[in-house]
Design goal:
Blueprint lengths: L2 H7 L14 H33 L11 H13 L8 H5 L2 E5 L7 H17 L17 H6 L1 E5 L2
Antiparallel strand pairs: 1-2
Helix pairs in contact: 2-3, 3-5
Protein name: RDD family protein
Keywords: Cell membrane, Membrane, Transmembrane, Transmembrane helix
GO cellular component, one term: plasma membrane
Length: about 160
């Protein structure tokens, strides 16, 4: 066996190393719980604003209550997951981040797409789509596979 054979069998990037994916599933679940606790807390002041708006518009503004959660959650993930850190505050707390497989940085559009695909896939499969992470080598979910992303531990 030559040295070239051994070298080519070794992982080439951080994303290919098994250590990058150790504990990602449980960290991802905990990060989700932290992030959506933050989003729910952010909904409180916005809910009060919608309440006042409803009074000022004789009830028409109260229709925004139905869209309040997405109106708060989408900018939250756009500017955290799609930001410089490539992670939401919950993800940073648990030491994980979102990486693109092509090595390019994430952007707000990718952050929103990642979140929307997660919620749509979860709604269509009653949440069973998260079981996909048990069968993929990089512990990816459907939105990761479709968008060419992977969640890894921070270095």
């Amino acid at each position: 066996m030559s040295d070239a054979t051994v070298e080519s069998a070794a992982p080439r990037t951080w994303l290919d190393q098994p250590r990058a994916h150790e504990g990602v599933r449980s960290r991802r679940i905990l990060a989700f719980l932290v992030d959506y606790t933050i989003v729910l807390l952010l909904c409180i002041p916005f809910g009060l604003i919608v309440g006042v708006l409803g009074i000022l518009t004789f009830g028409l503004g109260w229709m925004l209550y139905g869209a309040l959660f997405p109106l708060v959650a989408l900018p939250y993930v756009a500017f955290t997951l799609g930001g410089r850190a490539q992670a939401t505050p919950g993800m940073r707390l648990f030491g994980i981040r979102l990486e693109r497989l092509d090595g390019a940085p994430t952007d707000p559009g990718l952050g929103v797409a990642h979140s929307v695909l997660f919620w749509v896939a979860g709604a269509l499969t009653s949440g069973f789509i998260v079981l996909l992470a048990l069968f993929t080598s990089r512990k990816q979910l459907l939105q990761d596979l479709l968008l060419g992303t992977v969640v890894v531990r921070r270095i």
